[in-house]
Every structure is written in C-alpha cells, then in structure tokens.
Specification:
Layout (H helix, E strand, L loop, with lengths): L4 H10 L11 E2 L5 H6 L3 H6 L1 H15 L4 E2 L4 H8 L3 E2 L12 E2 L10 H8 L1 H11 L8 H24 L3 E2 L3 E3 L2 H9 L1 H10 L2 H24 L4 E4 L11 H21 L3 E6 L18 E5 L5 H8 L4 E6 L1 H6 L2 H15 L4 E5 L9 H12 L1
Parallel strand pairs: 1-11, 2-5, 6-7, 7-8, 8-9, 9-10, 10-11
Antiparallel strand pairs: 3-4
Helix pairs in contact: 6-7, 6-11, 9-10, 11-12, 15-16
C-alpha cells in the first residue's frame, strides 16, 4: 500500500483502483495563498524564494501537509507567465495579489509573418524582454533572468523534495497557441482566428515541435517525468469546439505523443470549461495526460469519460473555500473521493485556493484523506 506522497502520486498515474482512501493523493493548489495563510506579505513572497519557503512551512503547520505542491515561487511564476504584471510592493500594496495585464503586444496581423521569418525562439525572446518592467534592452539581461530562475528553482524544488512532497511538474511551458493569444490579446486573437487562421496554424506546426524538444530537454535535465502545460486559451471559454478540433488539437495531440515517447506525462492545467474537449483525450496513449480541472469543466462527466484512460485532479470550488463551511467542504470532498476510488484521481482545489480562503476549509481538504 502506498504511504509516501510520491507513491500515492505514482499510484494515481497508474490508473489502478485505490484499495483504501489513504492511497489517494491530495493537492490543495496554493502559490500566493501560502503567504496569506502563513502570515508572510505578498511583497515578500514575490521577491524572495526564501520568504515563500517560510510561508509554506507556516501554512503546513496550520492546514497539514499536502502530497503535491506548486514548486516555483511567485516571483518566477510571474516572470514565466509571459504577460506584463503589476507586482505587490511595486505597483500594488504590499499584501495585494499580483495582477497580469493583457493588452495587444502587436497591432498588425502581419506580425505572424514576421514570426515565421524570425523563428519562434528569437521572437519569443524579444517579446519577453519587451514586457519586463523596465524592459530589458540587452539579451544578456534575459539570459541572466533565466539563470536566476534556475538557481531559485534548485532551491524551491529541493525544498519540496526535502519535505517529502511531490512537485506538480518538473518543467513547465505554455503552447505557442496560448502564448500568441496572450500576446495579441484575447479579442484581437479571436478575430485573427476568424479572419485568417492560416499564419497562426503555420507558426504552430512549424515551431511547436522544436519548443517541445527544448522543454523535454529541460525536464530531463531536472531528472523529471512531468511537464506542466498551461493551455489557458484552448478551452471552450475562449474558442469554439470546432476551432479546437481544427486548429489546436492536431498540434496538442502531437505534443502529448512527443512527450509520452520521451517518458514524460503531460500535466494539463485545464483552466475554464474543457467539457466539450475532453473526448479528444481518449485519442492519445493511456496515461499520457494528467488533467487539472478548476470547476468550470464537468468533473463527473470527465471522470466517467476518462476513467481508466487518463488521470484527473479537482475540484473543490474557490467560493466554497472562501465562504463555505467546513462541513460543506468535507461533504464535497467526500463526493469526489467516492467518485475517484476507481483510480486515476487526485483530490484537490479548483485551480488556486483564493487568498481569502478560511484556513479551516483548506485543512478540511487535507483532512478528508489524512485526518
């Protein structure tokens, strides 16, 4: 019977039924929330991996130790997100949640042709330089920032493993489709998809394989086996199921198969409503995808469809954690646990737990399996 967090995680990925509820892993997803629950300011946890680690330790004392944890501290998460941001202690009050700013990075759809000519790595590097505050003017600055990320990640990943917890991923990326959507902005990108998706499709097909190989190298260098994929604009909240089938899925399917061939599980952070898209994940190898649901996707329908095929995590609602009672959280968790005992299920929150969550409600998630 699995007893360690890693053993529980591997049991979940194996898709085999749980003999006892203690075999199921638990992941109340927190990043900035560690600061709120641990009494460390948002300014501090966004500027110091050491302060973030301090907040994690304080929070664990209050709510219990999860099996799985986000392994990158908020300052690096903000950098890797690939959007301009307002930071607590800089543009925001010290205890405000960081904010992303979405505005068009380019106004002319002809930029897609420029990307095809420059190549994705060069264009994306320039984009990342331009959105920093203040903008980077020398490629060396970007290289140094990635170097700092590597040093920080060594510290935070090492901390996670030292505590007997499992990092949610060993490397992370966003598909080119989703990065373009954020850079262009949702409205303008959607118009481009309607008017002339051809250049976007050309960019994806030409450059996504190389981007995947780079990420595979990153995961392998970390001696890992899981890649976190933040496809935040590929759900039916943003595009139609027909667009997904025609534009997104062929490239995503090839990526899943590419990572699977390299021995890497595709951990899809499925924000928003993916219910119409879930059927496609029966077309890829068994156990190649782990899907994190945030509450907008029908978790029961998804589990019935994918049980025995792919694993999923979810999905205690943020509103319940902030405004509900312990009994309500326990009842919701119990429903999920009973559903997931057939295997391939991880109990967790619906995306990140909000800053105003009640500590006792977060504790109730962990206690549902470990109490």
């Amino acid at each position: 019977m699995p007893r360690s967090s890693m053993e529980r995680y591997q049991k979940m990925l194996s898709l085999t039924p749980y003999a006892e509820r203690d075999e199921m892993p638990v992941f109340p997803m927190m990043l900035a929330t560690f600061g709120a629950l641990g009494g460390v300011s948002q300014k501090d946890i966004c500027n110091s991996p050491d302060k973030w680690i301090e907040s994690v330790l304080k929070t664990i004392e209050i709510v219990g130790k999860p099996d799985v944890i986000m392994p990158v501290y908020p300052g690096d998460t903000i950098f890797l997100m690939g959007l301009p941001a307002r930071i607590p202690g800089r543009e925001l009050p010290d205890d405000a949640l960081y904010q992303f700013i979405e505005k068009p990075y380019f106004d002319d759809p002809e930029e897609y042709e420029k990307i095809l000519q420059m190549g994705w790595p060069a264009w994306n590097a320039k984009y990342l330089m331009d959105i920093q505050t203040p903008p980077f003017t020398d490629p060396g600055q970007l290289g140094a920032r990635f170097g700092q990320f590597g040093a920080n990640a060594a510290k935070t990943f090492g901390f996670v493993y030292s505590q007997g917890m499992v990092p949610d991923f060993d490397g992370a990326c966003a598909p080119i489709f989703d990065t373009l959507s954020m850079a262009r902005s949702m409205f303008d990108f959607t118009c481009d998809l309607m008017d002339d998706p051809g250049p976007i499709v050309d960019i994806m097909r030409k450059f996504q394989p190389g981007a995947d190989e780079q990420t595979i190298g990153q995961v392998k260098a970390n001696h890992g086996s899981r890649v976190g994929v933040y496809a935040m604009r590929s759900s039916s909240t943003f595009i139609s199921p027909d667009m997904f089938e025609e534009i997104v899925w062929p490239v995503m399917k090839a990526s899943i198969e590419r990572f699977h061939a390299a021995g890497i599980t595709y951990v899809l952070h499925a924000d928003a409503n993916w219910t119409p898209m879930m059927k496609y994940f029966t077309e890829v190898p068994r156990g190649s995808v782990h899907i994190e649901l945030d509450g907008d996707t029908d978790i029961e329908q998804t589990y019935e469809l994918l049980c025995g095929q792919q694993s999923i995590r979810g999905d205690v609602p943020a509103t319940m954690l902030a405004y509900g009672t312990v009994d309500e959280v326990r009842a919701y968790c119990e429903k999920l646990i009973q559903m997931g005992m057939r295997g391939g299920f991880m109990l967790g929150s619906g995306c990140e737990i909000p800053l105003n969550a009640k500590p006792e409600n977060v504790k109730a998630i962990v206690d549902s399996l470990r109490g």
